[in-house]
Amino acid sequence: MTRATRWSVLAAALALATPAFGQSAAPDAAKMPATQGGAQQGTAGDAGAGKEAAHAELVDAKGNKVGWVRIRETPNGLILHTRLSGLPAGEHAFHVHEVGKCEPPFDSAGGHYNPGKKEHGFAVQGGYHAGDLPNITIPSEGAVEIDVFAVGLTVADGPNRLLDEDGSALIVHAGVDDYASQPSGNAGGRIACGVVKQGAMPAASGAGS
Q1: Pick the catalytic residue: 60, 132, 147, 177?
Q2: What is the pLDDT of residues 80-104, one digit of tens each?
Q3: pLDDT class of 38 with cuts at 50, 70, 90
Q4: How far apart are CA 190 and CA 109, in angstroms?
Q5: Is there a catalytic annotation at residue 55?
Q6: Active site residue 97
Q7: What is the dihedral of CA 21, 22, 28, 31, to 10 degrees?
Q8: Options 83, 97, 147, 177, the catalytic residue
């Protein structure tokens, strides 16, 4: 396999503000998700600033490892440094789900993480779920490594924490999130799942930086 391709999905997030996504006016920029290319720091004075706060190791329905996510906290949300490989090429929906359990076919992870009880999708009034994220495109080479920024989420503190009573999981879908259909963007089946766990990725996982 060739070396994993790195790029930003900022363009995809910005494209959500155009009429092509089915809305007449751009959503509030302060609420829009976007990718973040470098900032990896916590709140000012936080001794843990810049450290990996949580992680997830993704597997497919057969139990094969297909990726990982390194999660870092910032004052405005979470940076999800994500690597995927061994999944079908093309565009895929990527979401945070409400339960930290990954039992194939991954329905065990529940619906999208949505503590605010909002509508699904960046392109609808009343949206979006806290767990809604931009689609990810896996190139024909078969691997991708990107940063995705999840606005307003935290790891263990506050109302939008991933590590609540039943945890949370990261899911890759077979299809594309259309950012509008209810309740989950018509994204298709769940092809990969990873339980969010506190702390840095274990060295034994073999995940690169």
Answers
A1: 132
A2: 999 999 999 999 999 999 999 999 9
A3: very low
A4: 10
A5: no
A6: yes
A7: -60
A8: 97
Per annotation, catalytic residue among 120, 147, 177, 178: 120
Contact 62, 79 (CB under 8 A): no
203: phi then psi, degrees, rounded to nearest 5:
-60, -30
pTM for the complete prediction?
0.74
Q: Which of the residues 55, 83, 92, 95 is marked catalytic? A: 95
Measure the CA–CA gap between 106 and 200, rounded to whole angstroms. Answer: 24
The question of whether 173 is a catalytic residue gets the answer yes
Residue with tokens 């997830």: 56
> Which among 72, 83, 92, 190 is annotated as catalytic?
190
Set 72, 92, 129, 177: catalytic member: 129
Mean model confidence pLDDT for the chain = 78
Beta bridge partners of 84: 67, 144
For residue 11, the surrounding DSSP H or E stretch is helix 10-15
Measured CA to CA in angstroms, residue 16 lies from 28, 53, 81, 118 at distances of 11, 29, 21, 18
Q: From CA 151, how far away is CA 131, in angstroms rounded? A: 9
**Strand locations in the chain (E):** 5-6, 52-59, 65-74, 77-85, 90-92, 94-97, 136-138, 143-151, 169-173, 190-195, 197-198
Question: At residue 153, what is the residue type?
Answer: L
